Amino acid sequence: QKLRVKGMDLGTSDVTPEDITLLRALVAESARKLQALWPDLQFHVIDWDTVDPVGRIPLFERNDPVLSGIRFHSIGEMLPPVEKPEISYKLPHDVHPNPHAHDLIAKYVADRILAPSADR
């Protein structure tokens, strides 16, 4: 309903605790169902956990038993600190990552998650 009323311009003030609980449950259930189909599957989540002009909502708590067994990776590990992250890493017209940020994220995933020698 919110998306129909406001379009895609949802801000941090629009997110409720119930929304966060639902997101965590969806991630946990997705991991559970996929791992039931493929027992050797490793389920990873990239968490955009940095403080920036858009704001920070803690979506995932690493010690949450609902999320047990899921591997989390902080976007802060992937994107080097810069003076103006909203310019360096985000699209000019909204808050989503730009091509440069995607390149850095892809390199992290290739080197740290998919690489045969990566500690998984």
Topology summary:
Layout: H1 2-6, H2 17-37, E1 44-47, E2 71-74, H3 75-78, H4 85-88, H5 99-114
Parallel strand pairs: 1-2
Main beta sheet: 2 strands, parallel
Number of strands: 2
How much helix, percentage-wise, in residues? Answer: 40-55%
The coarse silhouette is globular
Uncertain ranges: 3-7
SSE string, helices as H and strands as E? HHEEHHH
The neighbouring-strand order within the major sheet is 1-2
Strand content: 5-15%
N-to-C span: 39 Å
Number of helices: 5
SS-derived structural category: mainly alpha
Mean pLDDT, rounded to whole units? 82
Global Rg: 16 Å
Task: Quickly describe the structure.
This protein is mainly alpha-helical.
Describe the structure.
The termini are far apart. This protein has a two-stranded parallel sheet with strand order 1-2. With 120 residues, it is mostly helical. It has helices at residues 2-6, 17-37, 75-78, 85-88, 99-114; strands at residues 44-47, 71-74. The protein is built from five helices and two strands; from the N terminus they run H-H-E-E-H-H-H. 42% of the residues lie in helices and 7% in strands.
